[in-house]
Amino acid sequence: MAKESGVHVLLAVSEGSPISYVTVAGQQNTEFVGETETDDVTDKSQQGWGATLNVLRRATVTCQGKADWPDSSGLDAVRNAWQSGSDLQCRLTLNAAGANYTGLFQVTAFNVSGTQSDATEYGFTLANNGSLVFSAS
To answer: Tens digit of pLDDT for each residue in 17-26?
Structure first.
């Protein structure tokens, strides 16, 4: 597998129906973390070996960047979802070939900051709200 620039890891969001994705502008760092919670189901029949059962999968997306005014429709959608507590339809593209995860997410953290000598920055965290769909391209 060839090495690839992280520039292709991009988050796009959609607020309504029909789904119409818009990429959150100004992204500098975007990360997808998939985790599995397990249950220890070890019993005497395993002869001293541990056994686990996958019981819960979680996905988290964190995104930081520089606000790109006036192209803020993606960031506005994230803010609106945080403010209203509603689900946000998201597509996280993983590579140049277009592999992606799509699904509903909740905004669990949202921040905007600015200093006198720097561009306005944003950051937010999303947590899956249901199953995600993976597409290889």
So the answer is: 899 999 999 9
**Residue pair 92/10 in contact by the 8 Å Cβ criterion:** yes
Which residues does 115 contact at the CB level (< 8 Å), separation at least 6? none
pLDDT in tens, 70-124: 888 999 999 999 999 999 999 999 999 999 999 999 999 999 999 888 889 999 9
- pTM: predicted TM-score of the whole model, two decimal places: 0.88
* Interatomic CA distance for residues 36 and 57, integer angstroms: 4
Cβ distance 121 to 114 under 8 Å?
Answer: yes
> What DSSP character marks residue 16?
S
Residue ranges of domains in the chain, CATH in brackets: 6-135 (2.30.110)
Whole-number Å distance between alpha carbons of 60 and 38: 17
Torsion sign across C-alpha atoms 83, 84, 86, 89: negative
Class of residue 92 by CB neighbours under 10 A (exposed 0-12, middle 13-18, buried 19+): buried
d(CA 122, CA 89): 19
